[in-house]
Amino acid sequence: MILPIVAYGDPVLRKKATDITKDYPKLNELVDNMFETMYNAYGVGLAAPQIGLPVRMFLVDTTPFAEDEDLSKEEQVALKDFKKVFINAKITKEEGEAWVFNEGCLSIPDVREDVSRKPKITIEYLDENFKPHTETYDGLIARVIQHEYDHIEGVLFTDKLSSFKKRIIKGRLANISKGKIRVDYRMRFPSEKKKR
Fold it and tell me: Which residues are catalytic (predicted)?
């Protein structure tokens, strides 16, 4: 089932999410719905807060990046079919010299900005079967994971911009929170909550 994606301005996007347990209600169904929602919006990652749930879960599928001809064959192979669910994740290490990449977010449509992040991460997490993992990633996979991880920490990519850039996009962000934007996927705007 395709779920509405929560828009910028909703308080759930600012909450530090809480861990979940193995008996979280309808977990498998939630994972399926989140993947379906993400694919419907042409995303490469989606965090539970983006569908209104303040829990520490996100998922990633970097397959669309594998078609980028500017990347090396090695990078394309790594990105192809990289599809994972991260539950109760904790990034334990970020390493290397920060690099800039243009990021966007399904909760902040039509806003794309250059964001600086470290190129290599180590992350501890549980998969959808609650099996524990500790893995190290670099490049675009690390970046997508960092972006989604920020969501479960209550952080948005726009928080990482300079105050000058924040001033430039302030009006666009206000319009998103008021629902004054056209998107081709389901969204839920903060202004809609007040009407109910």
Answer: 148
Q: What is the C-alpha to C-alpha distance for residues 137 and 155, in angstroms, rounded to an integer?
A: 21
151 in a known ligand binding site: yes
| pLDDT reading at 41 higher than 90 | yes
| C-alpha to C-alpha distances, 145 to 18, 59, 86, 117, nearest whole angstrom | 18, 8, 9, 11
Query: Residue written as tokens 């969501």?
Result: 151
| 133 labeled part of a ligand binding site | no
- The letter for the amino acid at 110 is D
Q: What is the DSSP string of 91-105?
A: EEEEES--EEEEEEE
Just list the catalytic residues. 148
What would the pLDDT profile of 68-100 be if each residue is shown by its tens digit?
888 888 888 888 989 999 999 999 999 999 999
**CB neighbours of 111 closer than 8 A, spacing ≥ 6?**
104, 105, 158, 169, 172, 173, 176
pLDDT digits (tens, 9 = 90+) for 45-56: 999 999 999 999
**Residue 89 annotated as binding?**
no
pLDDT at 87: 98
Domains of the chain, each with CATH number or no CATH: 5-195 (3.90.45.10)
